[in-house]
Amino acid sequence: MQDGNLVYIASAGDNEIVVLRVASPRHPPEVLQKIDLSRYAAAGGVSTPMALAPDGRSLYVALRTPPLPLVALSVGADDGLLTVTGVAQLPASTPYVVTDRTGRFLFSAANPGATLAVSGIDAERKVAERAHQVLHVGHKLHCVAIDRSNSFVYVSSTDDGRIYQFRFDETSGRLEPLTPPSIKLQSGGDPRHMILSPDGGFLYATTEAGGRIASFAVDISSGQLTEIPGADIMPSDFSGRSSTADIHMTPDGRFLYASERVLNRIVAFSVNQASGVLEKIDETVTETRPRAFAIAPDGSFLIVAGETSGELASYSINPANGRLGEGFRFPVGRRPNWIEFAKN
Hints:
The chain has strands spanning 5-11, 16-22, 30-36, 50-52, 58-62, 69-75, 82-89, 96-99, 105-109, 115-120, 133-136, 141-146, 152-157, 162-169, 174-184, 191-196, 202-207, 212-218, 225-232, 244-249, 255-260, 265-271, 278-285, 292-295, 301-305, 311-317, 324-331, 336-341.
C-alpha cells in the first residue's frame, strides 16, 4: 500500500463504505473509493458495524435493515481498495461483528433479540450463508471481545448489566458458557463496547447510561472476569442521563479513550498496567454524537466520527502523556458510525 494510513468509514445514512487515505492527522484525507451497499439492503439502519480479518485482507460489513445481510469484501494487497466477494445472512439485526483470531469464524451480537451467532469463514474468505451456532443470552447484546489466546469470548448486554463469558473452541468454532456464565457489574450500569488490554490481563467496558468505565481483571488461564475499580467518564457535577459509546486503547496499553454523546467528548485515561486502574487525564470536545472512533495502528493519532455532524475529526496523541491535539475536520457523509484502520 502507498504511504499513509487507509481508513474505512461506514455511513449508515448513505448506506456506503468510504475509503480514505490519511497521510497525516494534520491534513484532510483523500477519498479513494466509495462502495454503495444499497443493492444488498435499504438505507436506514441504525448503524453499519464492520470487522477486519486478522490479516487485514477481508472486511465484513453488517447491514441492519432487511434482509439483514453480511457483506464480505476483499482488501486489495497493493492499494487497500475494496471488492465485494460474497453476501451471507445474519440471524438478527446486529450492532457488532468481529472475527476470531484465526479469521475462520465470525461472531455477531444481535440487538434486539439477544442473539449471539457464530458463522464459519471458508478458505476463500466467504462467510457461511447461515450461522452454525446461535445462542440466546442476556438482553440487547452489543459487543463481542475475544482474548488474545482465542480461547475466551466476552459479550456485553446493554439491558441487564452483565457481561457473558464463554470458552471458544477454535477447531469446531463453538462456544460453551463458563461457570458462572455471566458477571453482573457491581459498579452499576449496562456494558456497551469493550476492549481488552494488549497483554490480555484486563477488560474495560463503557456503561452506556451509567457514564462510567467498568474495569475487570482477566484470569488468563480460566477466562474468568473479576471486577476492579473503574472510572467516571462524565464530570462529577453531571446530573442528566449519559450516553457513552466507543472505547479503545493505544497499542502499547498506556492510554485508554472513551467517547460520550451528551457533552460530545473524547475522554482520555492513563492506565496502570500492573493494577489495571485508570486515571482521567484529559477530555476533548469533538464532533456531535461521537458514536465511533478508532486509533491508528501505530498509536500516534485517532479519528472520531460525528454521527449527527457527518464529519470526521482527527487528533494527534501525545506519546508522553496521552493528551490529544486537534487535527483535520472532514465531511464524510450522513451518519458515519464505524471506523476501521487498514492493517499496515
